[in-house]
Specification:
The protein is α/β, with parallel strands linked by helices. The chain is about 35% helix and about 20% strand. It starts with a strand and ends with a helix. Uridine-5'-diphosphate (UDP) binds next to helix 6 and helix 7.
Length: about 375
């Protein structure tokens, strides 16, 4: 059979594209090199628990069109991300809010907290003497001050990025909200949740009645012959790989997980616990059941599955996860984008092919905008 589109990759970009194209009467074939569909949102089921195999995924957006779209495929639950930080056994709420300040300094009112933060920032601001922060350390110290920087930011960031805070760009930390209300919700977005029944339900809904082939690598099976079976290509794999790395290799940052079953119904009492000191080599521990089980449901499931998350430099053969958007990589990606423009019958989309850090909702928004 001849297809309108051959779609390389079954992550949210590829799967949403297939759904929309099918709605418009187009025929699609989705090929996926992994044994499972869904890209990074795919979940294994272990002990009845959906385990986020490629990293914890929390859906959040303020875009009503995207929220209505995903909810038309599957219902979402009321999960709200509220991570805990563990610094050498001391526990703090995240993101930085009145709970954190109260735990850190015993303050009770926003006024007391603001006063304390002003004191904490004073030294850094004096040092800056009016100039803008030029690295992550200066940015953090002038935003929240010394105690929070030392206990909740410095070592976590060093573990996560494998570099000193003074050698990292300041924009990384700007993403963390600072609030003078007792609100532990990590995201500021209007809508948030996890698909009821897990992310695989979302992918199954998107790819219903679409032809799919798993364990099928575009480069070994279709690169030279795809025009024989399809009119257009939608490519969601790594941008540099499509062009045979002819201009050089793009860098990525990657994480890996050590996952195990614990013989207890409730291991850490929260889905996400960040370990913010160097005492532990991992950055955070995910207890997957808390994404989808609440109240008594936690105890109705006698075991639990946890994943320690480790951050590491990317080497060939590892999963490419986060683009390293520094100057030289951005420049290289731009050169590849110029080459991509010459491929008139190919759509390059998603996190790998655009070499862009994308949350799930913006990926879906992008695809919806193409139709
Ligand atoms: P992917 O999901 O990576 O899909 C691309 C697919 O293409 C993969 O399945 C890959 O195997 C396949 N492929 C590649 N090359 C080939 C080939 N040659 N042949 C066949 N198939 C191929 N977003 C949020 O909104 N909230 C979160 O909490 C969140 N947490 C995250 C945590 C981690 C650790 C990571 C890495 C990302 C997180 N994200 C989160 C981002 C989210 O994963 C992405 O937005 C989403 O995966 C993008 O979908 P995609 O289709 O572009 O990419
Ligand atoms: N961060 C930190 N302590 C924490 C959590 C985050 O210092 O407990 C910093 C860290 O530098 C990280 C950045 O804030 O890279 C953004 O964190 P977030 O969890 O929002 O990003 P993600 O890891 O999901 O990309």
């Amino acid at each position: 059979m001849r297809y309108d589109y051959l779609i390389v990759g079954s992550g949210l970009f590829g799967a949403t594209f297939a759904f929309k194209a099918k709605q418009m009467g187009k025929r699609c074939l989705v090929i996926e090199k992994r044994p499972n569909l869904g890209g990074n949102v795919y979940c294994d089921t272990i002990e009845g628990i959906h385990v986020h195999k490629y990293g914890a995924h929390i859906f959040h957006t303020s875009n009503k069109e995207v929220w209505d779209f995903v909810n038309s495929i599957v219902e979402f639950n009321r999960y709200t991300n509220a991570p805990i930080a563990n610094y050498k056994g001391e526990l703090y709420n995240l993101p930085f809010n009145m709970n954190t300040f109260s735990q850190m300094w015993g303050v009770r009112t926003p006024e007391e907290a603001q006063k304390k933060i002003e004191e904490q920032k004073a030294e850094a601001l004096l040092k800056l003497n009016g100039r803008a922060p030029s690295n992550l350390e200066e940015q953090a110290l002038s935003l929240v001050g010394k105690d929070i920087f030392e206990k909740l930011i410095k070592e976590y960031t060093e573990k996560q990025w494998g570099r000193k805070c003074e050698d990292l760009p300041s924009f990384i930390i700007k993403r963390l909200p600072v609030r003078f209300v007792y609100d532990n919700n990590y995201f500021n977005d209007k809508y948030q949740g996890i698909p009821v029944g897990g992310y695989n339900k979302l992918i199954e809904g998107l790819l219903k009645d679409v032809d799919c082939k798993t364990s099928c690598d575009f480069f070994t099976e279709y690169k030279d012959c795809w025009r024989d079976i399809a009119d257009r290509l939608v490519y969601t794999g790594p941008l540099d790989e499509y062009f045979g790395y002819q201009l050089g290799r793009l860098n990525w940052r990657t994480v890996f997980f050590k996952t195990r079953i614990e013989d207890t119904p409730n291991f850490q009492g929260n889905a996400v616990v960040n370990y913010t000191s160097h005492e532990q080599p991992y950055t955070r521990v995910i207890e997957h059941k808390h994404f989808e089980m609440f109240g008594q449901e936690v105890y109705n499931c006698p075991k639990t599955v946890i994943s320690e998350e480790y951050s590491t430099e990317y080497k060939q053969g590892m999963e490419p996860y986060y683009p390293v958007n520094d100057e030289s990589n951005n420049r290289l990606a731009e050169s590849y984008r110029e080459l991509a423009k010459q491929e008139a019958d190919v759509v390059f989309g998603g996190r790998l092919a655009e070499y862009k850090y994308y949350d799930m909702a913006p990926v879906i928004e992008k695809v919806l905008g193409l139709f």
